[in-house]
Amino acid sequence: MGQYNRNLRLISQAFSQAKIVARGDRIFIEGETEDVEKLERLFGKLVEVVRTKHMPTVDEVRYLISQVEEGGDLTGILTDVIQITHWGEAIRPKTPGQKRYIEAIKENDVVFAIGPAGTGKTYLAVAMALNYLQQGKVKRIVLTRPAVEAGEQLGFLPGDIFQKVNPYLRPLYDAIYDMIPASELEKYIQTGRVEIAPLAFMRGRTLNNAFIILDEAQNTTHTQMKMFLTRLGFGSKAVVTGDITQIDLVGIPSGLAEVPRILAGIPGIAIVYLDRADVVRHPLVKAIIEAYERSEQEERKGEVRGGERPQGDSGAGGEAP
Asked: Which residues make Cβ contacts (< 8 Å) with residue 90, sequence separation at least 6?
């Protein structure tokens, strides 16, 4: 029911035509057959989640409601545990898209996750990598990303090469710090079990028995993507994440954008697309993504309209259309 029955109130508001009565450990539902069936699925899933010792948040309940209303698959959502953080919180897929992503990593040696910010691309990949390392399925984790500036000029920063590229690698550190204590990560780095380095450091290497993550891959060139993918050695997995709507390269095609055309259909390679339905950050993130998508669509329509000429106009003289 949630604290002070807040989850129950949320569900009642979403299914306002149905009557929901909770008495003790029983829930009675009256209403149209379709609503009753949806509510039965929803409450059944909530019971399943609570039995895993996880208390669903308001946002998670909202998401489950939307999935039930759309007829989405709830299998494994909020119940499959990937990794336990060092403060005891379970990391689990929260959307069908994230569930597909995790299954793709388990079943394939190379996985591409393409989607907007907040869909858990990097976070879930890091969680899976730590899971594989701790179970002895791989001997090390290699985390990398291209050092491409998102509008900022960081080249003036003092220090050696590692200090200069550290700002680019910070998001990878943030993800891994969420899952293991800083002291443990330092130990992993010192013993070579975890390596965090810019993409340029991957050239000429063969990575055996490793879980390799390439983050922000939309900023790789064709040559860099090919170079990275050919580093894969025996007993290794590679996960490549990126958002092709946030390419910071100027005048150069993105290596990630080419992947569906070049690599689709090859056995052992999976391409998983995530969208705003898979956003699991602050609720405003989804609204922001939707607002930007609308704005970009309107701009594209405006460009098309601006490029059109009235029928019969040769373009010489007269007013602009």
From this structure: 52, 54, 81, 83, 84
Which DSSP string do the residues of 105-141 spell out, in sequence order? HHH-SEEEEE--TTS-HHHHHHHHHHHHHHTTS-SEE
DSSP 51-68: TTT----HHHHHHHHHHH
Residue 100 identity:
R
Encode pLDDT of 182-216 as tens digits.
888 889 989 999 998 888 888 889 999 999 999 99
| Residue 32 CB neighbour total at 10 angstroms | 11
Chain centroid to Cα 255, Å, comes to: 19
Count each helix (H run) and each strand (E run) in the chain, helices first. 10, 10
Contact criterion met (CB below 8 Å) for 276 and 116? yes
Residue with tokens 């007993």: 235
Query: Is residue 212 classed exposed, middle or buried when 0-12, 13-18 and 19+ CB atoms within 10 A define those classes?
Result: buried
